[in-house]
């Protein structure tokens, strides 16, 4: 139980960080992510702020026609960080009884590097233009997009044609007052909950215990977290294309079905391994790999940015903050209860993933709109239509029945 409390404690700090998203979003995503975030010493709070502001920062700089593909790199970055953490945690690196303090201090070195980089990387053009700092905005546009033109107005126009406007952000309370925005926020929260209840954080935190429980090869078990993170990066590569060509909705829902099936197989092979069936441990490994395919092709990367696409641009930070908060509540729940359940009921503990994910999938199948086509719609036009009343403006998302959903 103590191990479960230790693993889940980071989620408590991250949840506190999520509650700070709204009040400090006015400082700008870049400054919070690269500067202010790194002076916070509590690791959990740091994680919560980073999970919310990293997608928000990407929303402000990524060209609209490749937003989905480039946002998938956030998932790749998370997998890369996980692989580094797993490698550094090996006993012959910094995971021994004598070297673990180095492992604890090591993230501070990355924080110092990010603080230094924050002085070299300018604020986003979107934020600078909102503050009326046009000269700095021109230089920022040239830095991010290498746009060269003697006419500064043309530079700004070319930037707005390429990157969607991210207006001043609404608070969570203000966003919830609008029924259409509220619907998008709630759907984003369900998407985020589904990502965790599919088993993602538990598979990262307890992968060695999972494989030990099915009597997998002892010499390979310590290396599985690092190997799994590297494989996750490779499996995400097809998602860079599929998220644009096949759409967010079908990619998310189909890979969710894949994850549910994988969890069912994990349950079965864990139960069979208790009967001393040697082949069951290899069946468990195949099911774990099957889960990795489903999660990294769709559920993992899509859930990072989809909550922001389900609402108008001015509610992006509110939606992401709420989604990340739910994400960490679910992380606390799953990491706290899985391990003692696995000791108590063995393979039946996978029902903690199968049942909630199945319920969430049915809700998303019924209510989740396709958001891939948002870049075709002008944000100003959306807000003007919203001002004209609910009889004209639909719920946010691709709800036009004549528009293909690719599903």
TrEMBL record:
Transmembrane segments: 39-58, 70-94, 100-121, 185-208, 220-240, 252-273, 279-306, 318-341, 347-368
Keyword set includes Ribosomal protein: no
Primary localization class, coarse: membrane
Example of a GO cellular component annotation carried by this entry: membrane
InterPro entries in UniProt: GLUT, MFS_dom, MFS_sugar_transport-like, MFS_trans_sf, Sugar_transporter_CS
Membrane topology: Multi-pass membrane protein
Localization of this protein: Membrane
One protein family per Pfam: Sugar_tr
Record domain Major facilitator superfamily (MFS) profile: where: 1-372
Database matches in Gene3D superfamilies: MFS general substrate transporter like domains
Keywords on record: Membrane, Transmembrane, Transmembrane helix
GO-annotated molecular function: hexose transmembrane transporter activity
SUPFAM superfamilies per the UniProt record, alphabetical: MFS general substrate transporter
PANTHER family for the chain: MAJOR FACILITATOR SUPERFAMILY (MFS) PROFILE DOMAIN-CONTAINING PROTEIN, SOLUTE CARRIER FAMILY 2
Name of the molecule in the record: MFS domain-containing protein
Species annotation: Caenorhabditis tropicalis
Classification of source organism: Eukaryota, Metazoa, Ecdysozoa, Nematoda, Chromadorea
